[in-house]
Request: fold
Amino acid sequence: MSDRDERSVPTRATIAEVARAAGVSTATVDRTLNNRAGVKARTRTQVLDAAERLGYLPERRSETADPGSIVDIDFLLPGGTNTFLRMLADHLDALAVARRDTVRIRTHLIEGFNPDALARKLVELKETSGGIGVIPLDHPAVREAIRSVAESGVPVLTMVSDISNVARIGYVGIDNRAAGRLAGHLLGRFIGPGGTEVGLFTGSLSYRGHEEREMGFRHILAEEYPHLKVVELREVRDDSRRAHGEAAALLAAYRNLSGIYNIGGGNRGIGQALEEAGRARDVVFVCHELTEYTRRFLIGGIVDAVIDQNPRIEARDAVDWLTQAARGRPEPTLPPIRTQVIFKENIPQI
Reply:
């Protein structure tokens, strides 16, 4: 063979070259090519793409993670006294036990309404997680963290409240603007033409979902019930004790208050304030989520209507979606989360 012939024989790419092309470490390339655990599905795809492109592999070995392997998914939920979020966490914990042979589900409680703490945890988890479900605060630090996680190849799913301008794979939750309109319709019909003043409570407008509910609520009042005026909006950070104090102050300030709509958590505190003031029968109270407290308030006539989203279904859908994404498979076909209006006469079993 001549020197020219020898030079024409292509040399095989090295692991270091594959690592550079894929933007990962040589250790990650080694784990991927030897089908070892600890490599995210999307990272695996990046490495195999680069190896095939550079001629390191004669053909594609695998397009997805090993279907029999256990994947790791994480959920970031706000901590605090919000009963609905505790119920959601309990359902995730139950799924962690039921599906332990196929998926490791880890739930992390983050200090409520702290965007920096949430952003730090998101970035920390991108090194070990196969997929992350998060209830996001609509804040620049959180958006940047989600972008960083998504760019690293880890799928991110938003839950309960959505966020804009980030590469999340989807959203599991209700249409919050429609839920706000529904609350306004219920309040308007219950109050009737005699009332004029309405109080509005929210957990925090840092949640896009709470902002959307307020928007829908105000719009339907303007369209259908213009005689009703929102006299105040008070943020209670989903804290029952704070909600109790704010509700007591509102009731003292507005003796003609006809209705209250609570966008977020803290229903227990508002209901207690209505009871203590002796105004539970005079003020129409519409809120969200069927919990042990709103159930009792419905039976006692303190709450008139509860707009519920099913946390068990939300937990199940989020786990299904993230498990599929972590394995590099197409997203499952999931029906949208529906709202249910619950009155005293149709209270279901929790």
Residues 11 and 55 are 9 Å apart (CA to CA). The longest strand covers residues 71-78.
